Automatic annotation (TrEMBL):
<dbReference type="InterPro" id="IPR038136">
    <property type="entry name" value="CofD-like_dom_sf"/>
</dbReference>
<comment type="function">
    <text>Required for morphogenesis under gluconeogenic growth conditions.</text>
</comment>
<dbReference type="Pfam" id="PF01933">
    <property type="entry name" value="CofD"/>
</dbReference>
<protein>
    <recommendedName>
        <fullName>Putative gluconeogenesis factor</fullName>
    </recommendedName>
</protein>
<dbReference type="InterPro" id="IPR010119">
    <property type="entry name" value="Gluconeogen_factor"/>
</dbReference>
<keyword id="KW-0963">Cytoplasm</keyword>
<comment type="similarity">
    <text>Belongs to the gluconeogenesis factor family.</text>
</comment>
<dbReference type="InterPro" id="IPR002882">
    <property type="entry name" value="CofD"/>
</dbReference>
Length: 341
């Protein structure tokens, strides 16, 4: 059982993940009176990030770029420049973003991705903390239900098979996988740790499979929240409901560790699914309330949908409000407990 701890400060909220869902939540949490830390996956090997990872033998910058932008207080025009992606007809820089190039160049200049991100965070007036989950690129490995295996974050979903388990290694297999600086201590000192939203096997679990991070999640006194995905994902979570997502996470760490499930019960209109531009996303994740009750002590369910011209996302403001309210109420109960003891 997690022990109560007394505190007299802003709640510390650590968000772990990657992909497009993480920045949505971080942008809204930034506006709350909370001490926000983002721990960002470093297993991406596709697109611009993958190309730069290969060229520099360095941590892929894409997810870190999006998180820095989400937490930054620089003017919108500067963010747009940082996020600008070169057109496909540019033979040299095709597909690369300016931000990816800047992060890679800064890491090369500083000799370390951690120092590079801290420098850029200062330059970009980041409100919060951004830490890479590891300080060198990781290789994601998957074992499928049929016993076969595949390696590489961008290759794993393309097999079209149900994934049983994932692990990570360093690109140099003689090295031990280690968490990045301040990652473990941030989790241990947090009031709340948030997982997701993001691809279950390729954005969230790569972080948890770093031994120090997995161990910290099992030992921390912080409440651990899982934000369930809205849509199933091709090659990862076909026919997987919200309770199944949590069962997978518990299976990977060998015990139940998630305290709160935040799940969407709003209905995605059929025409949004039919017109979804991202072919990875298939159908809406089904809600299994009974299954969730068997996995977690607390369920927060609501219509968390944000329908945009680009697709279906979480309503960052509503999700952040629930996260902050839960963290704040936990702190208040802790203070009242010690006051009345």
């Amino acid at each position: 059982m997690k022990q109560l701890k007394i505190t007299n400060r802003r709640p510390k909220i650590v968000v772990i993940g990657g992909g497009t869902g993480l920045p949505v939540i971080l942008r809204s949490l930034k506006e709350k009176d909370a001490d926000v830390t983002a721990v960002v996956t470093v297993a991406d090997d596709g697109g611009s990030s993958g190309a730069l990872r290969k060229s520099f033998n360095a941590v892929p910058p894409g997810d870190l770029r999006n998180v820095l932008t989400a937490l930054s207080d620089i003017p919108e025009l500067q963010k747009q420049i940082f996020q600008y992606r070169f057109k496909k007809d540019d033979s040299t820089l095709s597909g690369h973003t300016i931000g990816n190039l800047i992060i890679s160049a800064t890491a090369d200049m500083e000799g370390n991705i951690y120092r590079a991100i801290q420098l850029l965070a200062t330059m970009m007036h980041v409100k919060g903390h951004v830490y890479p989950a590891a300080e060198e690129p990781l290789v994601l490995h998957a074992k499928y239900m049929d016993g076969t295996t595949e390696s590489g974050e961008s290759h794993i979903p393309k097999k079209g098979k149900m994934i049983d388990y994932v692990t990570v290694t360093c690109t140099d297999e003689n090295k031990t996988v280690k968490a990045g600086r301040k990652v473990k201590s941030s989790i241990m000192d947090a009031d709340m740790v948030v997982l997701g939203p993001g691809s279950l096997f390729t954005s969230i679990l790569p972080n948890l499979m770093i031994p120090e991070i997995g161990e910290a999640l099992l030992k921390t006194e912080a409440k651990v929240v899982y934000i369930s995905n809205i849509m199933t994902q091709l090659g990862e979570t076909e026919n997987v409901n919200d309770a199944d997502h949590i069962k997978v996470l518990h299976k990977h760490l060998g015990q139940k560790f998630i305290d709160i499930a935040l799940t969407n019960i709003g209905q995605v209109p059929e025409f949004y699914i039919e017109n979804e531009q991202n072919e990875e996303y298939l159908l809406q994740v089904e809600h299994d309330f009974k299954g969730l009750q068997e996995e977690v002590p607390l369920i927060i369910s609501d219509d968390f949908l944000q329908l945009t011209s680009k697709g279906v996302y979480h309503n960052g403001e509503k999700v952040a409000e629930e996260i902050f309210k839960t963290a704040f109420n936990s702190q208040r109960k802790i203070k009242e407990y010690f006051k009345n003891a």
